[in-house]
Write a structure and sequence with these properties.
- Helices cover 52% and strands 19% of the residues.
- By secondary structure, it is of the alpha/beta class.
- The chain folds into two domains: 133 residues, Rossmann fold (3-Layer(aba) Sandwich); 136 residues, Histidine kinase-like ATPase, C-terminal domain (Heat Shock Protein 90, 2-Layer Sandwich), CATH 3.30.565.
- Strands 2-1-3-4-5 form a five-stranded parallel β-sheet, sandwiched between helices. The chain has a five-stranded mixed β-sheet with strand order 7-9-10-12-11, covered by helices on one side.
- The radius of gyration is 35 Å and the shape is rod-shaped.
């Protein structure tokens, strides 16, 4: 509409008044069209291209309110200026409630034409703003959809690339005999898989801005359990996790923390030849913070003193906790160890 002359449709069965309105509209620079009844007017409106309808209340069949009701649901609906008699203010209010942009009291004086022109001009201005806003919103939706499709493709490629890196690390682990180096590479492979799982989750869901931790931890636990079974471990992972959505950038940190805590429990909680449970719980507290707990029934450790092994896993947990702004607590539950991670999103 900004690049063309506005088109006004006048629906009225009064030929004398129609001629006066026609001349006034053309002098104002509008394209003028006329329909003598509601059916003809609706047929023209449905063809499209009408910007404003000046609609008289009394028509040969029915009223302008009937026409307004039948305009509901029309795509790119034109603005409506309702024309009614001076003693019919209740009708004007009903028209406004039915979707008319304005109303003009119909009189025999010259003021009526001027008031009608002013109302049409204001309706066109509002219509232009509304259509510009609708176009801007549509362009924003289309841009967002394109960005989400692109981001989904990026996550797909990142997940595939990380899977390839993980496979290469696994091949390297299989190619060496040093048991310590082999174990270190296997743990690195698990960390890579935890991060890859986030990206895999993102390209299989509609929302790339957040990750459902319940679904993600279920799939992560399944991968960790598969790795444990490959090493002939009979320790089980038991989950009790709520479906909580968190921003994408925080999900990878949670995944790495869980991977490290489960791996540490698998390595150090139970004596060689023993098996048990490693439990993962996730819930939202009353203050809306998120609580993650990983616990076992093994020999127990309260987080003080020198950790078993190199301590790399504990350092990684602390580093990931910093990225989450999380507090990490250890408790020796006798038997077992309980590690709690509390963070907000």
């Amino acid at each position: 509409m900004p690049h063309r002359i506005p088109r006004v449709l006048y629906i009225d069965d009064d030929p004398g008044l129609t001629r006066l309105v026609h001349k006034a509209m053309e002098r104002r620079g509008y394209h003028f069209e006329h329909a003598g009844n509601g059916d003809d007017g609706l047929a023209r409106i449905r063809q499209g291209g009408i910007d404003v309808v000046a609609l008289d209340h009394y028509l040969p069949t029915g009223t302008g309110l009937d026409v307004l009701a039948r305009m509901d649901g029309l795509e790119d609906r034109p603005a409506v200026v309702y024309v009614t008699g001076s003693i019919e203010t209740a009708v004007a209010v009903a028209a406004l409630k039915a979707g008319a942009a304005d109303y003009v009291l119909k009189t025999v004086s010259e003021d009526f034409i001027e008031l009608l022109l002013t109302a049409v001009e204001q309706a066109i201005a509002v219509l232009r703003l509304n259509r510009a806003q609708a176009r801007a919103e549509q362009e924003m939706r289309e841009a967002r959809d394109r960005a989400e499709i692109l981001l989904g493709e990026v996550n797909h490629r990142v997940a595939n690339s990380l899977a390839m890196v993980s496979a290469l690390v696994g091949l390297q682990a299989n190619a060496i005999d040093n048991i310590d180096a082999k174990n270190a590479l296997s743990e690195t492979q698990a960390r890579i898989q935890a991060i890859a799982g986030v990206h895999r989750h993102l390209y299989t869901t509609d929302d790339v801005r957040s990750v459902n931790l319940g679904d993600y931890l279920q799939s992560l636990a399944a991968e960790l359990e598969t790795t444990m079974q490959a090493k002939q471990s009979t320790t089980r992972i038991v989950l009790n996790v709520q479906n909580i959505a968190i921003p994408t950038e925080k999900a990878a940190s949670v995944g790495v923390i869980v991977t490290e805590l489960v791996t540490n429990a698998l390595k150090y909680a139970y004596a060689e030849g023993q098996s048990g449970e490693i439990r993962i719980a996730l819930s939202r507290a009353s203050d809306q913070s998120i609580g993650l707990v990983v616990e076992d029934d093994g020999i127990g450790w309260d987080g003080t003193g020198k950790p078993q092994g190199t301590g790399l896993g504990s350092r990684i947990v602390k580093a990931m906790a910093v990225t989450l702004g999380a507090n990490v607590s250890y408790a020796n539950t006798l038997p077992g160890t309980q590690v709690g991670v509390q963070f907000s999103v």
